[in-house]
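[job 0412] stage=complex_fold ligand=SGN status=START
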Amino acid sequence: MKPTAFFVPLLLCNSLWGYGKNDRESKMNIVYIMTDDHSYQTISAYGGPLGKLAPTPNLDRLAAKGMLFQRAFVENSLSTPSRACLMTGLYSHQNGQRTLFGNVDTTKTFFSEILQQNGYQTAVVGKWHMRCEPKGFDYYQVLWDQGAYYHPEFKSKDTNGKYVRREGYATTLTTDYAIDFLEHRNTSMPFCLLVHHKAPHRNWMPEPKYLHLYENAEFPYPDTFDDDYNTRCRPANEQEMQIDKDMTIVYDLKLNQLKDTSPYNKEWNVKGMQASINRMNVEERGQWEAAYEKRYADFMKKKAAGADMKKWKYQEYLKDYLRCIKSIDDEVGRLLEYLEAHDLMENTMIVYTSDQGFYMGEHGWFDKRFMYEESFRTPLIIYYPQKKENSKCNALVQNIDYAPTILDAAGIEKPHYMVGNSLLPLLSGKIPAKWRRDIYYHYYDYPAQHKVRRHDGVRDSRYKLIHFYGTKKDPLDCNELYDLKKDPNELNNLYDDLKYKKVQQRLQKRLDEYRSALKVDEYNDK
Ligand code: SGN
Ligand code: CA
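[job 0412] stage=complex_fold status=DONE, emitting structure tokens
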């Protein structure tokens, strides 16, 4: 690929900023990799049963070189809000991006702008998913909206605001652009590169070489697969993210042969799948149809119903999702190899995370949004040169910490208004005595797809309090309390259980304190 035009002005700026050799040598580079909807349950370094059947050797390699965070969370489990938290270091109500729609407040400074002002070259490739232009980036190649898996459209500084179709698979192309930036960067300046993969977002479309991977695998069912939501309040019962009812046969499970006759086919999901297939070239379409023909034959042969149908859907869902993860793992490996081959491991911090977690059939679900662990929690691996290898961290960390961490790695003090904390002190292996004891969560996107009600809450290292609220038109006021030590699957709501009166009071007090200290402006029906 040809070098892009932005390097020339950068060279000039570089000399204006007067970066000397010593400055350069002491500056840490940053590679921040963020996937879309990648669950910690599907990374083998985390040790769960799915990782054993579908290993992620390259992510494990990164974890072996660095630190695996076991309590990393988001503030608002949804893409656009999570990305706004990352860029601003602020909670959703502070940066304006509460839901998937609307705009982040662009008067807020993005950490990329601060890096630029401090002599960093900055780049973002892949899913941007905010309605503003990438702000504070010297180089970008970003997908349109959610982006497509096959031959997706990207926009860069060279395309005059237009999205241009690129030949290839999203995960590979995103890595190609990351390497393009690294290849053509000004090597006299430190860099920060954000690699934001589209995968494994719904509808989990594998690349051709993995269309048959895990074909004969039988994945274990999570303990909560048949959760009946009793003890929980209305939202857990009323959501629309159930594998048996809401996962579609055509769009999600790709049985395009069923056309309009299937009871599962609403018009949109037939059209959505067809549009995805129409993007493929003739060869890819042939490989795709051959692979899913097998699934179709199996579906027709089994004619499963009820509980069997739910299990069949789960198995096929996991195959596609894990095939997408295999490509991610390969491409993370390719990027690591590039960094190794170019002697960058000694002065580059590498972060791997996801914009939120995801349900792999827990509670019978796919998707995210809730404050329950699987969607609230994300994978997080940090490699930092010369720090302890193969270590694990149990401190409570959150995506508002990433901007301060990146700035800290660059030797820049975080601006006073950023609410998160740098994670670098944790990398020594000890949790500082003053580290936070609990974290705040807030989800706003209702009414919306999947019908998850608005809620906020607080979680400490053992307990979690969630408050669901509604609107004047659609009121709701209910609470849930969990003892995560005794009930890690969050099946037993202890709210108003007298044995937990003190715990409930303590968590309620913390929740009230967060709301008032952060000036949270909605948490009850309006
Ligand atoms: C799309 C998906 C939803 C998903 C949202 C948000 N539907 O709308 O299932 O919850 O994205 O995802 S689809 O029919 O378009 O696939 S997020 O990761 O961007 O927050
Ligand atoms: Ca996402």
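The first strand starts at residue 29 and ends at 35.
[job 0412] exit 0
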